[in-house]
Amino acid sequence: MMGLKRYHIVVFLFMGSVLLSHPIFAKINRVDSLRVWPSPTSTRVVFDLAAEPEYTYFPLTNPERLVIDFDNTDKKVDFSQFDISGDLIKNIRHSTPKHDDGIRVVIELNRKAKPEIFAMPPTEPYGDRLVIDLIDSRPAAPQVVLDRTQNQRDRDIIVAIDAGHGGEDPGSIGPSGTYEKNITLSISRKLETLINAEPGMRAVMIRTADYYIHPNRRPELAREHKADLLISVHADAFHSPQPRGASVWVLSMRRADNELGRWMENTERHSVLLGGAAEVITDKASERYLTETILGLSMDYSMATSYDVSESILRELKKVTKLHKRAPQAASLAVLTSPDIPSILVEVGFISNPQEEKNLNWAKYRQDLAESLFTAVSHFFRKTPPEGTLWASQRAEQRTHKVRSGESLSLLAQRYNVKVSSIKQANNMTSDMVRIGQVLTIPRI
Asked: Are strands 31-38 and 113-120 parallel, antiparallel or unpaired?
């Protein structure tokens, strides 16, 4: 009798597990939100879901569409309530589902686009997602920048400005909900305006709006624009609110120098998860040895120049804000790995610190930060302009003078028939004091 009871219990449990695994009893998934992120070359569509999605998809032509079937998903979602940005997507709507327990979503396109689709696990601040990258068949025309490798005279110095994070990757989030991606884009735009207003300099924006670019792709874009310098703008964060102050980072070929550097490296990996799958760079094995030799020499120059620029920026930043570190810091960050372009990452403050978050939300403070970056970069390139640039030509036409005992700026100005202010500007001087043995540049204008 007891054996029969045990048999009934086993059968009951087995039948219960079978019934619960049936779609009718399984937990229904749900589309919580829809987000669209257009960029110059593609548009990202993100479905925020209550659980990991079960899906299939296929494209249709004449007209161009992408159809996604979500299995075991609640039909109660109104796609008309969500904002569809950009000009690639015409509409997102429901259609007759493949199964009664699911939904079919149709993305109507204005032109042909190649879909790349992948599911993403929960990563703060998001839960489960289905990410669709629509690679535009007619991307926006790239900004035209003259090729600096050609024999050109008096070209502009090109500064690539990278506003950190963007799109689905908000970066760090302040205690009051401020997104790092918005702060970095604002400061970058202000810096762009200052650089473009300076004769002999030109800025190119790596990210021009709120969309995601993989960290490995950012230095590639700087190279495509023939940049002389890459500045990546970020707002720092830490797991406690106490740290504050600005810092400047350069590439380390080894592990990060300190705990904060390791935190930043982990944050970059987190941003990759938020933004999508990694991009792969390959080269031919037969060319590897020569490539490594050339890149090694180029990297040595870039890293040395990056360090010098970083010191110049720190000198200017301390006039605007507290410094977290007074010397350039080192970490292994993808955005800094260009072998032929000096690259730096500027953390303008800790967005995780309540007071600094408040400061960063102040437009005047962001303008002051942008001006300090511009002053540092322009002073650096005035002293060491890249070959073939307008500033290099101007510097070649200038004279030098070694200060002797009894000489002053006013005496030198009279001797060379130039203004005191011109000598100060040519030498990035903030006072009228000179020292014996100092070598001054004497402008010819």
From this structure: unpaired
Beta-sheet pairing, 42-49 with 128-136: antiparallel
The residue with greater pLDDT, 207 or 152, is: 207
Q: What domains can be seen in the chain, in order of their start residue?
A: 31-136 (2.60.40.3500), 157-276+286-383 (3.40.630.40), 397-442 (3.10.350.10)
Residue 440 to residue 132: CA distance in whole angstroms: 58
Quote the tokens at residue 303: 């890293």
Q: Is 389 exposed, middle or buried (0-12, 13-18, 19+ CB in 10 A)?
A: buried
Instruction: Give me 306's structure tokens.
Output: 């990056």
Tokens at 111, concatenated: 């032109």
Q: Give the span between the Cα atoms of 373 and 231, in whole angstroms.
A: 9
How far is Cα 192 from Cα 203, in angstroms, rounded to an integer? 5
Return d(Cα 89, Cα 247) in angstroms, integer.
Answer: 41
Per-residue pLDDT, 194: 97
Confidence label for 379 from pLDDT (cuts 50, 70 and 90)? very high
Instruction: Report yes or no: 164 and 275 within 8 Å, Cβ to Cβ.
Output: no
